[in-house]
Design brief:
This protein is α/β, with parallel strands linked by helices. It folds into two domains: 25-109 and 210-329, D-Maltodextrin-Binding Protein, domain 2; 112-205, 3-Layer(aba) Sandwich (D-Maltodextrin-Binding Protein, domain 2). It contains 15 helices and ten strands. The strands form two sheets. It has a five-stranded mixed beta sheet, sandwiched between helices. Strands 7-6-8-5-9 form a five-stranded mixed beta sheet, with helices on both faces. Strand 6 (130-133), helix 6 (139-150) and strand 7 (160-163) form a beta-alpha-beta unit. Helix 2 packs across helix 10 and helix 5 (87-94) crosses helix 13. The relative contact order is 0.17.
Length: 331
């Protein structure tokens, strides 16, 4: 009888030890992941969600679309766990004291073009002319000013800059020569080409890295949820591999989260982004962070003298590389 009771006690203790672990393994961690536009720029996140990879790594993910810089405000208020956003956008907030750091980067350049009326054939032709940006202080404005200076043209002196809020309106204004040029992003640039507008400079080919797609978390979240950040990046990396190797998944993800229904445009966008823009391994680009800070410093003294390392944490990607995870995804 004593032997039987002892056996029952051992079995009961065994169940106690195993029970919570099984429950925890079966449950999913709820997270909120934000993105600022329904654009292929944020393709890796879309693919990780659509392909079920986030669930594979233990997340019940709510996808949150908040337009533009408002995404940063929502994140800083504590309503998001992860954000995918341009480096310049999060850094503008971080130099002002926002608790945000970069942990990964998928696209290291900007998918914008300086597009001009056909009457403009070279940079010198812009002297005395007008270029449109979306808003002063916006990324379009920040990008074009140093380019003009490199061409020996002083912004607002040799070349006038005006604000035209919407990209489609900007493309139309250039085609009608109401302005001679505009800083236009994909996919509006495709429509601009159809209207006869041509590319004078593709920022993706400029050699001046300004990351368009980064993964951002708060410093506090990175410190208190390190294991969750590592799991998220595992899903993000594996989602990127699924995106780059599974065309139908990529097209399906963009149709769902990018709001694009035209099959030809979906196919063109998939081929363009997977062959040219998206990195296989989303390592942080410190030079890109430094370049972004330099751009911001043009208008904000608080960015001057700041170091890229203040606004990034490369230890997560380094750990995934050292442990062999990245090699297991990309042998």
């Amino acid at each position: 009888m004593k032997a039987l009771c002892r056996l029952c006690l051992i079995f009961w203790m065994f169940l106690i030890l195993l029970g919570p672990a099984d429950t925890e393994g079966a449950s999913l961690t709820r997270i909120r992941a934000g993105y600022p536009s329904p654009s292929a720029t944020f393709y890796p996140l879309f693919a990780a969600k659509e392909g079920g990879v986030l669930e594979k790594y233990g997340f019940d993910t709510e996808m949150i679309y908040v337009q533009g810089v408002q995404l940063i405000q929502v994140h800083v208020s504590g309503q998001l766990d992860f954000s995918t956003i341009s480096a310049v956008v999060y850094l503008q907030a971080s130099v002002e004291g926002a608790d945000l750091i970069q942990v990964a980067s998928s696209i290291d350049n900007q998918l914008m073009k300086l597009m001009v009326h056909p009457s403009i054939s070279k940079p010198a032709d812009l002297k005395g002319k007008t270029i449109a940006v979306t808003r002063f202080g916006s990324l379009t404005d920040l990008l074009v000013r140093p380019v003009l200076k490199n061409w020996g043209l002083e912004p607002m002196k040799d070349v006038n800059l005006i604000q035209i809020g919407r990209m489609p309106d900007m493309a139309l204004a250039v085609s009608q020569k109401r302005v001679e040029g505009g800083v236009i992003s994909f996919p509006t640039s495709l429509n601009a080409e159809k209207m006869g507008v041509k590319t004078l400079l593709d920022f993706a080919d400029s050699g001046f890295d300004i990351p368009a797609t980064t993964v951002v978390v708060s410093r506090r979240y990175a410190q208190t949820h390190r294991e969750a950040v590592l799991r998220f990046l595992k899903a993000y990396i594996e989602g990127t591999r699924r995106l780059l190797t599974d065309r139908e998944l990529g097209i399906r993800a963009l149709r769902k989260y990018g709001g694009v229904s035209d099959r030809d445009l979906l196919a063109y966008t998939y081929d363009l982004f997977t062959s040219r823009y998206i990195k296989k391994i989303p390592k942080i680009n410190p030079k890109g962070v430094a370049n972004s800070l330099s751009l911001i410093a043009e208008n904000n003294p608080k960015a001057k003298g700041r170091k890229a390392e203040e606004f990034m944490d490369a230890s997560f990607m380094e750990e995934l590389e050292k442990t062999g995870f990245i090699k297991s995804v990309w042998p």
